[in-house]
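Figure caption, in words: inputs first, then the predicted bound structure.
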Amino acid sequence: MEKSIPVHVSAIMDGNGRWAQRQGKERVNGHVEGVRRVRECVEQCIARGVRYFSVYAFSEENWNRPAAEVGFLMQLMHKSIFDEMESLLANGVRFRVLGNMERIAPELREAIAQLESMTASNDRLDLIVFLSYSGRWDILQAARRIALERPQDAASLTMEDFSSYLVTAGIPDPDLIIRTSGEQRISNYLLWQGAYSEFYFTDTLWPDFGREELDRALDSYASRDRRYGKVK
Ligand code: IPE
Ligand code: IPE
Ligand code: MG
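Bound structure (IPE present):
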């Protein structure tokens, strides 16, 4: 029997700092290594037939980290856009960034918009980077826009209507959410969209999460029984 492959796999990439510290390096080295694992996972997702791969790269709460680390992460994002451009294009990957873009520096926003438009017609895999994102922020911005744009529909609004105001509009909900580094919490990630996601927790730190690790998560997913509240 064909193993069931998730349409949308998402990763809460955690443990970069600990990975670096365990090797006696600065935390930021873990972030650099972490980007390499994103590329590897993108390639493995394509090989395994996953259609959407998303990563939690920077939460709204992460703005509260020391300014030097925040600055480094934003620069790394900027640099990675240039470094990964070619491989994304060659692999037919559509690149998108979702989050509270008002807090992102204009130069980075510009680079993001450029890569988004360059890859807009690619349809092999969507790589979605959640940046300056939080689940509660997403739900709140949707509610505010609905209140402003269609106050007359308040009573008749459907789940689908509401979903279409989230930043993930048009993207299927994640089937599988992976969290690395041994933490077992959602950390304000896809609160609405993850309502029926399967979770996979591993002690592996994100910079060590390569192809084989992703395969293990996919195997675990294939063994799950998704009942959605029904009786089987
Ligand atoms: C995840 O690694 C990356 C971000 C949250 C930006 P961390 O930086 O959280 O690494 P740990 O959890 O401190 O080891
Ligand atoms: C969650 O990691 C956010 C991202 C991976 C971007 P954190 O390391 O920030 O989460 P907490 O603080 O341990 O919950
Ligand atoms: Mg962490």
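The beta strands are 8-12, 52-59, 93-98, 125-133, 176-179, 198-201.
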